[in-house]
Amino acid sequence: MAVLVTGGAGYIGSHMVLALIDAGHDEVVVIDDLSTGFDWALPPEVTLVLGDVADQDLVARTIREHQVEALAHFAARIVVPDSVADPLHYYLANTVKTRALIETAVKEGVKHVIFSSTAAVYGEPETVPVPESLVTNPINPYGRSKLMSEWMIADAAKAHGFSYVILRYFNVAGADPRGRSGQSTPNATHLIKVATQSALGQRTHLEVYGTDYPTPDGSCLRDYIQVSDLAEAHLVALNHLRGGGDSLTLNCGYGRGYSVLEVIEVVKRVSGKDFEVRLSPRRAGDPAQIIAGADRIRSELGWVPKHDDLDGIVRQALDWEDSLSKRNRR
Ligand SMILES: NC(=O)c1ccc[n+]([C@@H]2O[C@H](COP(=O)([O-])OP(=O)(O)OC[C@H]3O[C@@H](n4cnc5c(N)ncnc54)[C@H](O)[C@@H]3O)[C@@H](O)[C@H]2O)c1
Ligand SMILES: O=c1ccn([C@@H]2O[C@H](COP(=O)(O)OP(=O)(O)O[C@H]3O[C@H](CO)[C@H](O)[C@H](O)[C@H]3O)[C@@H](O)[C@H]2O)c(=O)[nH]1
User: Fold this and answer.
1) Which H or E run includes 279?
2) Residues paired with residue 163 on neighbouring β-strands, in sequence order
3) How far apart are CA 38 and CA 2, in angstroms?
4) pLDDT value at 330 more than 70
5) What ipTM was estimated for this complex?
6) How far is the centre of ligand 2, averaged over its atoms, from the C-alpha of 304 (Å)?
7) Span(s) in the chain for CATH 3.40.50.720
8) 76: number of CA atoms within 13 Å, CB side?
9) Of all atoms in ligand 2, which is nearest to the CA of residue 194?
């Protein structure tokens, strides 16, 4: 019985594929349109079906051919400010296409669904950390596009009898400790990516978007979770569902926040490189602070993170960026 990973050629999806392979799952199928992913991010034993998650014939054929039992749905558009600039594109890519995919999964009898959601569903919480029980109130189209998908999945599961785990990721960072994958999107906007590229001289400078937030140093606070720890959370979620466990919605974070300025300091210290930092106005759609209430995933799934260390995460990101620039020069 296979696991179908949508968006498996992307940053987080490729780490999920590696985690599945490392755990001995021999049937892993990826559907990816390679819009932001890379076929080389996949190990050779994994089948890549090139296409769109909303192509219902293609997805149905893939599910049947590989006897797919579980779906891990990563494929999406992910950049918060882009979602503010082009909301209809985000609702199509993240909500409408998820509807089509879930409809196909239901028709084809897929038993379990794991969905990549986001801390952005909480919006601008008044206090942190945020427990899963907090009322959701997304402040940008990206968060809304994901929250609608959460609701669809929960409603469809109730009506059609599949089980699900919705994982609300906080800020994902770092790379595979064995150097097999990492964040590879050339113009990625994520803070740790931009900072490591600046440290390696691949960018001229880094802009800090906002230093007038109501936080200790005025810059935004985020909870950075290492990408292989996050992939491991998906594996324990899959085992939970396969063992007959109930459907769950869980935060994925460490429960600790770092400010943008603190992250920059860590990148400078770990890399041993200084780079220009410009203090700029706020970026559209950014909440001041978002930190996970991180207990439920531990108690429900027994998830134990192994890489809860910002220095280590930054070191992995630097090593990955370095290997990526060598790959691109070849
Ligand atoms: N990166 C983060 O910090 C973060 C935080 C919270 C949630 N998430 C969620 O995690 C998931 C993965 O994010 P990522 O950082 O790996 O992004 P990514 O852009 O690296 O990966 C997305 C993958 O999906 C593929 N894809 C996109 N649309 C597709 C479509 N219609 N059909 C087929 N393939 C398609 C892309 O080619 C890419 O390989 C997303 O759902 C995102 O919303 C990410
Ligand atoms: O060059 C940069 C890049 C980012 N930032 C700041 O750093 C913080 C983190 O920004 P990222 O772009 O790294 O991440 P986001 O918090 O915007 O969003 C990420 O985490 C969210 C969940 O918290 C979503 O799920 C989303 O997909 C994912 O990109 C923000 O305050 C942002 O303004 C900068 O100051 N300069």
Assistant:
1) strand 276-280
2) 112
3) 21
4) no
5) 0.97
6) 25
7) 2-173+225-252
8) 27
9) 1
